[in-house]
Amino acid sequence: MHSKIGGALLVLVLACAVCLAGCTGSEGSETQGPENSGVTETPVYVVGVDGEYPPYSYIQKDGSITGLDVESIQWIAEQKGFEVTIQPMAWDGIIPALQQGKIDMVYSGMTITPERQEQVNFSIPYLTINQSFAVHDDSSVTMDDIMAGKVVIGAQRGTTGAFWVEENLIANGTMPKENLKLYDSFPLVITDLQNQRIDASVYDRPPHMKAIEGKPLHIVGEIYTGEEYGVAIRKEDTGLLITVNEGLAELMASPKWQELLTKYEMD
């Protein structure tokens, strides 16, 4: 259901994005009042998220967008004196969208990697997670089978789970390249796993747990990757990076942080 609602809203949001293009509130474009009026308007920043990535960012049945990351940036915005517009986007195109100025930051469980750091700046880390694998309840697939490259693995395109399989199983010849099936969204991966068209799925553990809730699937094992999540911001937006870092530090030092971790079952 999330997928259908998310798809419809995504079309609407993308249409709005076209209208918004060129008017995002990056630090260099903070809107000013009429000349000589002395009035400065509140900056508005567009925050790109994956709309199907609970518990960090997801679209609810009523069409609203919430999650740990969404509530975090809304709290930071209130504390630091700016406003945000949350915009769901295709994950594999989200960094190009940031570089092109269609959004002002990515705050949606994005792992800090050297490759991404060449393209954008990252805030201070705010969470550390590992990769996990899930299989069907009727499956006999084990972690040994997965590590031996004997199974077909599904992953969302552009995620660190897909990168991990490419770098640790395919690049060294352990697993044939065709055994990695890439999808545009993780719900599509889970659908194919549930229908046993693939043998296993790989994803960040917290959203993986959420994705298999109520389905005949279970986590079969975890790979320690120690990935750190950060907020991605354009290289030139150094002022915004400072503001977000200050806000993150204030959030994690406040009772609000534990409240959010508890609410989204992250503690």
TrEMBL record:
<keyword id="KW-0732">Signal</keyword>
<dbReference type="Pfam" id="PF00497">
    <property type="entry name" value="SBP_bac_3"/>
</dbReference>
<dbReference type="InterPro" id="IPR001638">
    <property type="entry name" value="Solute-binding_3/MltF_N"/>
</dbReference>
<protein>
    <submittedName>
        <fullName>ABC transporter substrate-binding protein</fullName>
    </submittedName>
</protein>
<feature type="domain" description="Solute-binding protein family 3/N-terminal">
    <location>
        <begin position="44"/>
        <end position="267"/>
    </location>
</feature>
